[in-house]
Amino acid sequence: MLWIFATLVAAAGQTARNALQSSLTASLGTLGATQVRFLYGFPFALVFLALVAAAARASVPGPTAAFVGYTAAGALAQIFATALLLAAMRARAFSVATAFTKTEAVQVALFGFVFLGDALTPARVAAIAIATGGVIVVAAEPGTEWNARNAKPVLFGIMSGGLFALAAVGFRGGILALGDAPYFLRATTTLVWSLGIQAFLLGAWLLAFDRVALARSVAVWRQSLFAGFMGAFASQFWFLGFSLTAAANVRTLGLVEVLFAQTVSRRVFGQRVSAREAAGMALVLAGVALLLLAP
User: Fold this and answer.
1) CB under 8 Å to 192, separation ≥6 — which residues?
2) Whole-number pLDDT of residue 236
3) pLDDT tens for residues 176-202?
4) How many Å apart are CA 86 and CA 160, to the nearest integer?
């Protein structure tokens, strides 16, 4: 049951990291704030790997083709998922944007139906309907004309959740592809590779197309360094969870992040969630929970 502890720590750490990245978005832009998680997190991941390898008294497992493929796919999906999440946070309250990403499990079921032919039972269809209804309740503000501006954060959040789902599957696949090494060593090895890929790709993009954002992240290195540490810390525990049980189990328990985000939204950002938005988030959570419990 160690995965439960790992997931709870990961959810708390991710909430803190998201809050830090959200506060950096205004000065660094969406991609600039996104790369902070990877570029500044990578050195901490290397330290984690050195400590874990020393504790296990084992060598770091070598990469295989399957490992590189799964991990690279997860890394790319997570880059775009993080960027979309931060963009949603700029347009809507922190906790509401986080709730949109929690349609992740619903989208996993839909992906399985469309691409793998997985059966959708009546209970699963009901769960999808409940969660989708919750998203609509959160997004549809009374008296507000529905237009592209209002739809954008909803779309960004839902797309972010789908990409996070693909990333979770990719990372677990990479961890399993490393064979029989201790679970914590496989988890941290995958973390280092994923952050290395992400830091290189996004850093190269910013160097080529947005050097201003890259320079600003260096100028605010203290805040960026702490955000990077929290990102690596949270990811370390997510990956430990993925190495111990199915990604669906980890993501289900990880829904407590919505509650953490609501607390941060009120106390840190001074954003109040209306009764309607709270009801909508409750429906999203109920739908996701029903989906994962349904036969």
Assistant:
1) 42, 45, 46, 48, 49
2) 95
3) 999 888 999 999 999 999 999 999 998
4) 9
